[in-house]
Specification:
4-stranded antiparallel β-sheet; alpha+beta; 9% strand; 41% helix; globular; 541 residues
Length: 541
């Protein structure tokens, strides 16, 4: 048998994979380079090689580094914008008005089942407590300065905290003649809480707040005046600090409340002004609007310069002259101050160039609207509400208001939990202690105290763009079991449903006594019996 002389054929695959040693080293290097360069965000936000972020210098610090070290600058610029920028003023006041409005009213809501009370007993207790509360809250007796009632204090606390980042509330007990309650509410502006001179290095004090090992507020250092203000009384010539413990050592009573806008970071000591994220944008917008306004004013004046070979006499026999010296505002002799439509002679070697500012700018409104959307996104305020312009459709405007109302609800809960409810609990403790409100077990058990201290705070309603549609939608939700009359009444009117029912009951009784129907109409007279029929006879035999 003949022996085959054919050599085995190598597969194409083996030929293809056969590479020199140098190529393998290069591939290994590429794989290593790829692993280094494509590690997560290194090709995006964490890149140091892209031209878009190569000059971006950022650091890692705690809340004190980022906030407390910059808080004075942020606070001063926020105040400046509030006093000079209409858009900034409108943003702060819009939030204040929708969160507080005419004031958040107390609705006592005790846990009657836990306390062993019937519904009638609970309603009677709540009505009596609210009556006592109004005796204190609806007068200036609650204010340490004796200037505002409690609802006006809510507005001031909200606006001050938004503008400055936070506000501090002291709760002294100051007896006053003719006033049954000694509790007072004193508001301390954020500037007065600062580091004292010669502070104890052994204590963790920064931003005027002393904290414990877990970041809990132990004490607050309050200056007798604003350190940056001009002294106006002998007792304020020298700045002195008072250490106020956050809680009483024996009783645990609140001595001071810290109303901080937003807690953005763990271990955050001081609040950030509401306008802080958009300070630069608001300032630039203010400069732009000022420039556009000035351009429009300048363009409204039209001045004609006439060149003549006899400048001493002036054109038209000296008809047009510059303003006399006694009417000049600018002392600079080189400055020209002209009247409206003035005609001024020029020297032979002078020429005329007319300024054409092209004002009003046709794109001004579009630019302001666009930037307002940008600012409103950061402040959680739709630009329609920010600019008070509702030119869109009903659905779009309603969607904007509903979105804004989420923010207002959150801010309202913040004000209630940090200011209204703590003050009410301190007032209730004094009322129980003085025997003006009966609450058995109030001081013996924290659970019982919490059951007596339950409350809801009702504010102004959201409002409706189309009341008829809103009412119909509320009816449908209640009929479908998706809502309750209590909730719908609170959202649409800001009133409690039981109060509405009680008021309507009294109104219906008054109308019946006056012989009127609901709405004030007189009842229809009874029909007279037909001819040949007697009263009470239907005519049948």
């Amino acid at each position: 048998m003949a022996r085959s002389t054919k050599r085995p054929v190598k597969s194409k695959k083996s030929d293809k994979n056969k590479q020199p040693a140098g190529s393998e080293i290069q591939q290994a290097f590429l794989r290593l380079q790829k692993a280094v360069l494509n590690s997560g965000y290194s090709q995006g936000g964490a890149s140091y090689a892209k031209k878009s972020v190569i000059g971006w210098l950022s650091g890692l610090g705690d809340a004190d580094d980022d906030i407390v070290e910059n808080i004075e600058t942020l606070r001063s610029r926020s105040r400046s914008l509030y006093m000079t920028s209409p858009l900034a003023t409108g943003a702060l006041k819009t939030v204040r008005t929708n969160v507080v409005g005419s004031g958040l009213a107390l609705n006592a809501r005790i846990d009657a089942r836990f306390l062993g009370l019937s519904d009638e007993e609970a309603q009677e207790w709540e009505a009596n407590t609210e009556r006592e509360w109004r005796l204190w809250a609806e007068t200036t007796a609650c204010d340490a300065e004796r200037r505002q009632n409690f609802y006006q204090l809510q507005s001031l606390v909200c606006l001050s905290a938004l503008m400055n980042g936070d506000a501090f509330i002291v709760l002294p007990l100051t007896p006053r003649a003719g006033i049954p309650y000694d509790l007072r509410v004193g508001i301390i502006e954020a500037d007065r809480v600062c580091d004292p001179m010669g502070k104890d290095p052994k204590k963790n004090i920064l931003g005027g707040i002393e904290v414990g090992p877990y970041g809990d507020m132990r004490a607050v250092y309050v200056a007798n005046r604003n350190p940056y203000a001009t002294p106006r009384a002998p007792e304020t010539y020298v700045t002195k600090w008072t250490r106020i413990p956050a809680f009483g050592e024996k009783t645990g009573r609140r001595n001071i409340l810290h109303v901080m806008t937003d807690v953005e970071r763990p271990a955050q000591r001081r609040g950030v002004p509401f306008l802080a994220p958009v300070i630069e944008e608001l300032k630039q917008l203010k400069r732009y609007t000022d420039a556009e306004l000035m351009g429009a004013v300048v363009s409204s004046f039209f001045t004609v310069f006439v060149k003549t070979k006899t400048p001493d006499e002036g054109p038209l026999g000296g008809l047009g002259q510059m303003l006399p010296d006694q009417m000049r505002v600018d002392p600079d002799p080189k400055a020209y101050e002209l009247g409206n439509g003035a005609i001024v002679a020029l020297d032979p070697d002078e020429d005329v160039t007319f300024a054409d500012p092209k004002r009003p700018n046709s794109s001004f409104e579009a630019y302001v609207t666009s930037l307002s959307k940008y600012i409103g996104a950061a402040l959680e305020l739709p630009y329609e509400l920010l600019l008070k312009t509702f030119n869109s459709s009903y659905s779009a405007s309603r969607a904007a208001l509903l979105e804004a109302w989420k923010t207002f609800r959150m801010r309202r809960d913040w004000l209630v939990s940090s200011f209204c409810q703590p003050v009410y609990e301190e007032w209730l403790a004094e009322a129980v202690r003085k025997g003006r409100v009966e609450a058995p077990g109030f001081f013996s058990d924290p659970a019982i105290r919490a059951a007596w201290s339950g409350a809801e705070w009702a504010g102004d309603a959201q409002g409706q763009l189309d009341p008829l549609k809103e009412v119909q939608a509320a009816k449908e939700r209640v009929a479908a079991g998706l809502s309750t009359l209590t909730r719908e009444a609170a959202e649409m009117t800001g009133m409690r449903f039981d109060r509405i029912v009680e008021t309507r009951r009294r109104e219906e009784a008054l109308l019946r006594e006056a012989g009127l129907k609901a709405g004030g109409e007189s009842p229809a007279p009874e029909a007279a019996p037909a001819e040949g029929e007697e009263e009470g006879n239907n005519g049948s035999s």
